[in-house]
């Protein structure tokens, strides 16, 4: 079937991460064609109890046979950078860990068949291209995003007690390569939430800035009877949110459709609807394939650290 949304342009989607290299899980291997690639992820610690996972995949050579700058960057990390895990293993101070910056990164969605739920699960992840060591004079721990998006709806956040939290939820669609779209859930707080509730509306295009907040909490629960040594179970919980901190283009906070200079770049609602419908078909097809008895690979797949939902 021809792609009905082939004219839908790819949205701006940029992520920058800077912090301490906590884990380095990159590896060199061969792809299915026998070509050398680097793949895996790194964990970057932004602050205490706050870390971000960034995924990478890079071939050694470009399509034209030239050296791939991304591959070279990742190889340097594997050979020369020191992680917190390396320091602990060598019994060295964790202050020796390399401070890094991830660039050429994007937010993306990973959809997979969840055997336990018998349904499709989706999580948000960061896919990067380059890693460099940070300069001490400009070092700024952060995980930030810039995102062009089509606002599907705006609504108050409701907690488990069915009460409004004061925060705002924006469900958005982001066009990606090939005329497809992926959905994200963004959160607004305080003055930002107030501004958006008064000035933004659904079915329009926006440019938003924000922070990727990924909080890790460790809870230890004692179990046992009234005497002797008690059993302690450790539970690790990860909560990741995309928090809007600002938006607008060239000092103008307007949505694209309300700005004469940006109106031509606005995403058409008809194109978004078609792309969303195609996504639903893709998910149903993936679900049907994953539910087959012989699909063992998907039965054991788990959402990695830092999944949003």
What can you see in these coordinates?
- A hairpin with a 4-residue loop joins β4 (99-114) and β5 (119-127).
- The protein has helices at residues 69-80, 84-89, 190-199, 269-290, 296-299, and strands at 13-30, 36-47, 50-59, 99-114, 119-127, 130-133, 142-158, 164-175, 181-188, 204-223, 231-247.
- It is of the alpha+beta class and 309 residues long.
- It has one domain: OB fold (Dihydrolipoamide Acetyltransferase, E2P).
- Strands 1, 2, 3, 4, 5, 6, 7, 8, 9, 10 and 11 form an eleven-stranded mixed sheet that branches.
- The longest helix has 22 residues, at 269-290.
- The chain has five helices and eleven strands; from the N terminus they run βββααββββββαββαα.
Strands, helices and their partners?
Blueprint: E1 13-30, E2 36-47, E3 50-59, H1 69-80, H2 84-89, E4 99-114, E5 119-127, E6 130-133, E7 142-158, E8 164-175, E9 181-188, H3 190-199, E10 204-223, E11 231-247, H4 269-290, H5 296-299
Parallel strand pairs: 3-5, 9-11
Antiparallel strand pairs: 1-2, 1-4, 1-7, 2-3, 4-5, 4-6, 7-8, 7-10, 8-9, 10-11
Which features characterize this protein?
globular, OB fold (Dihydrolipoamide Acetyltransferase, E2P), alpha+beta, disordered N terminus, disordered C terminus, 17% helix
Distance between the first and last residues' Cα: 31 Å
CATH superfamily: Nucleic acid-binding proteins
Mean pLDDT: 90
Q: What is the count of helical runs?
A: 5
Annotated CATH topology: OB fold (Dihydrolipoamide Acetyltransferase, E2P)
